[in-house]
Design goal:
Order of helices and strands: HEEEEHEHEEEHEHEHEHH
CATH superfamily of the largest domain: Periplasmic binding protein-like II
Number of helices: 8
Distance between the termini: 65 Å
Oligomer: single chain
CATH topology of the largest domain: D-Maltodextrin-Binding Protein, domain 2
Number of strands: 11
Strand content: 25-35%
Length: 250
């Protein structure tokens, strides 16, 4: 083989190898939970796959991955603690909708924001609370969602909450007087209360507002993260909204 041709073939092979090494992952294992209206099972159950998973964030993430040319599987599971720990341990996986807290920052790679929500304290009907800060709620019995961002917020303030595997379980505990306050998320708690037929619950304190993200396993290639972030920013410039396409999810 002539030296020139051999050199050209070698350069092509090396170039192909470099392209493969730099190419973003071709497939993501997406996981989520019931967190309405952002992500939820169409039938309200605690397990759903692919098209049976709906919600504002779900529609946005679907469109994001379609535009970025990334194949994926999508599973909604219960409880959140299981979903969260799975993504921590499995390369090629990602979870949404997730708060990007200081405690979680180094655990994942992040794309977003994809939505936003408020952390709040909720009381049962007829209960009166005059709270100006979380510190003033320290002496009350507070229920929260295990491994949720609101639970982490309480723990960071040295407040021990009664943790449940399902945030909806806190509604019954609140109504029965087992807890005084429910540390949860808005507008999520309103959807959960409607599903449970619970009326008259009231927000008594907003703790903080946070954006929500798509959190990818920390070993996700930077090229993929950058592609997704750039695609999301382009969608925002276009004014893309899942509420326009699917108002029933909003």
């Amino acid at each position: 083989m002539p030296k020139r041709l051999g050199g050209l073939l070698l350069a092509l092979l090396l170039g192909c190898g470099a392209a493969r090494a730099e190419a973003p992952a071709a497939h993501l294992e997406l996981l989520t939970e019931n967190f309405p209206p952002f992500n939820m099972a169409a039938n309200g159950h605690d397990y759903a796959r692919d098209a049976k998973v709906v919600g504002q964030s779900t529609e946005l993430v679907r469109e994001l991955l379609r535009r970025a040319g990334v194949a994926y599987s999508l599973t909604l599971r219960f409880p959140w603690d299981r979903v969260y720990r799975h993504v921590l341990a499995h390369p090629g996986s990602a979870v949404f909708s997730t708060t990007r807290s200081a405690e979680r920052e180094a655990l994942f790679k992040w794309v977003g924001p994809i939505a936003s929500y408020d952390s709040v304290l909720v009381a049962a009907p007829g209960r009166s609370f005059q709270l100006a800060s979380l510190a003033q709620a320290r002496d009350y019995r507070i229920g929260a969602y295990k491994s949720g961002a609101v639970s982490e917020l309480l723990a960071g303030q040295g407040i021990a909450a009664q943790a449940t595997l399902s945030d909806q379980d806190n509604i019954a505990k609140l109504q029965s007087g087992q807890i005084d306050l429910w540390a949860t998320s808005a507008p999520v708690w309103r959807h959960l209360a409607r599903s449970a037929g619970a009326e008259g619950l009231q927000e008594v304190l907003t703790l903080r507002s946070d954006p929500l993200y798509l959190a990818l396993h920390k070993d996700t290639p930077d090229a993929l993260v950058q592609r997704l972030q750039q695609t999301l920013e382009q969608m925002r410039k276009e004014g893309w909204s899942s509420c326009t396409a699917h108002p029933e999810h909003c």
